[in-house]
Amino acid sequence: MKNYKFKVNENGYSVNIKSHEDNIINLEVNGTSYEVIMSTEIKKTKTPTLVRSASKQPAAPLQVTPKSTKTNIVAPIPGVILSLNVKVGDTIKENDLLLVLEAMKMENNIVAEKSGVVASIKVVVGQQVLQDALLIELE
């Protein structure tokens, strides 16, 4: 397992720890094997467990204003626009594919939340967008 070299009163010692289980250690000192029983067990260090604290603010629900005639499609995560599957004036149905957003080397399909007509497209292919950036407006 581990090798150590010690010098005590000008005498050299080569110590090789062979195994360690609970409080019993098998080691070799200058070629002679020994079994050492520790009076107290050596505590093994544990890998720390990371605990994420609860968010101070609850996730804001999607707010849809029923009076508004426009629906904004925003980026759910930061990424790069890989493809646009619609153009201004297209009539779309709910769950139609609008665009593909690449984030963390994964392609994410962005689909329509509801039926409507594409009023404007605010991005181009290859553009990097941040989270919550406006991508498409629907009427």
SSE topology:
Layout: E1 2-8, E2 11-21, E3 24-29, E4 32-37, E5 71-74, E6 79-84, E7 91-92, E8 97-103, E9 106-111, E10 116-121, E11 128-129, E12 134-138
Antiparallel strand pairs: 1-2, 2-3, 3-4, 5-12, 6-8, 6-11, 7-10, 8-9, 10-12
Features:
rod-shaped; 4-stranded antiparallel sheet; mainly beta; OB fold (Dihydrolipoamide Acetyltransferase, E2P); 139 residues; 2 domains; single chain
Strand content: over 45%
Share of residues in helices: under 10%
Provide the gyration radius in Å. 32 Å
Classification by helices and strands: mainly beta
CATH topology of the largest domain: OB fold (Dihydrolipoamide Acetyltransferase, E2P)
Coarse shape: rod-shaped
Annotation, overall tally of beta strands:
12
CATH class descriptor of the largest domain? Mainly Beta
Question: How would you sum up the major sheet?
Answer: 4 strands, antiparallel
- End-to-end distance, in Å? 70 Å
- Quaternary state reads single chain
What is the number of independent domains? Answer: 2
Number of helices: 0
Name of the CATH homologous superfamily of the largest domain: RNA polymerase II/Efflux pump adaptor protein, barrel-sandwich hybrid domain
Low-confidence regions: none
Order of helices and strands: EEEEEEEEEEEE
Query: Mean of residue pLDDT?
Result: 84
Task: Give the name of the CATH architecture of the largest domain.
Answer: Beta Barrel
Domain Lipoyl-binding: 63-139
Organism: Winogradskyella thalassocola
Pfam family, one: Biotin_lipoyl
Keywords: Biotin
